[in-house]
Amino acid sequence: MACVALAARAPITLISMAKTKVVAVINQKGGTGKTTTTINLGSALSKRGKKVLLLDLDPQSNLSYSLAVTQPEATLADVLLGGKSIKDVIIPKDDLWLVPGSNELVDVEISLVTQPEREKFLKRILAEAKGFDYILIDCPPSLSVLTLNALTAAQEVLIPLQMEVLTLQGLDQIMNTVEKVRKAFNPGLRIKGIVVVMFDMRRKLSQEVLEYLRENVTEKIFDSQIRLNVKLAEAPSFGRSILDYDASSNGAKDYRALAAEYLGEPDGQE
Ligand SMILES: Nc1ncnc2c1ncn2[C@@H]1O[C@H](COP(=O)(O)OP(=O)(O)OP(=O)(O)O)[C@@H](O)[C@H]1O
Ligand SMILES: [Mg+2]
Q1: Whose CA is nearest to atom 10 of ligand 1?
Q2: Probe ligand 1: pick from 35, 137, 254, max atoms within 8 Å of CB?
Q3: Does 270 fall in a domain?
Q4: What pLDDT digit, counting tens, does each position of 131-189 carry?
Q5: Which domain holds residue 187?
């Protein structure tokens, strides 16, 4: 297994991080819209003039696949395993930039577990990704050492959440983890908000869970909900964001509205 020592010694250039906002998109439950939200919020932010880097931190590399990047020359694992600078693995993709992931992130995860300051590796390498307004990190469906690295590198957390009873239980776990990371490693970390995804407003249970959340959770719940929309599920097979695949779909409208709300700007859509 490759050694992670070199990356551990990379200098932290905090100046470059001052302007870039790093956002971890997390939910330890699988299939909750993390990757879909990373790509499409990223694309919508980019179409509002922001320079956006997407980072695929999931060994499944669904984010890379969804942007039709299937066999990149180098990936995030090559950076985290010590050889390359993040600048060497960034790929331009439509109006976005991507740091591709790969299955080798499993090796990274195993290597990191025994490293001192194992939570800081991603923060160190991101310091070299200069000039971006936003770096959105697509996290794996676990609260693993990779997710811990994302939370240590990030200033903000976005939680995509389906309106199901069991997601409420998972939400507590996420909040607890964020709180622990804030206290131990990253005092500036804050939950930017919960994004309601795959929302079916005709379904009574979805409405009830949303009501419960509004009454019991103090974190912001974005008003812009992402509706269930088959075009969002189709877009990855065309390797494009929903905004480039079908700009008039409900999925595109919802992610544009979310980007506007995220930035605190007027939506401007009908
Ligand atoms: N609003 C939506 N409407 C319809 N389908 C959606 C929507 N959002 C996501 N999907 C589909 O649901 C599935 C799971 O979404 P996604 O891959 O974004 O979840 P994830 O949290 O990243 O999953 P994992 O935990 O495996 O990384 C995908 O097939 C995706 O295309
Ligand atoms: Mg995913």
Answers
A1: 233
A2: 35
A3: no
A4: 999 999 999 999 999 999 999 999 999 999 999 988 888 899 999 999 999 999 999 99
A5: 5-263
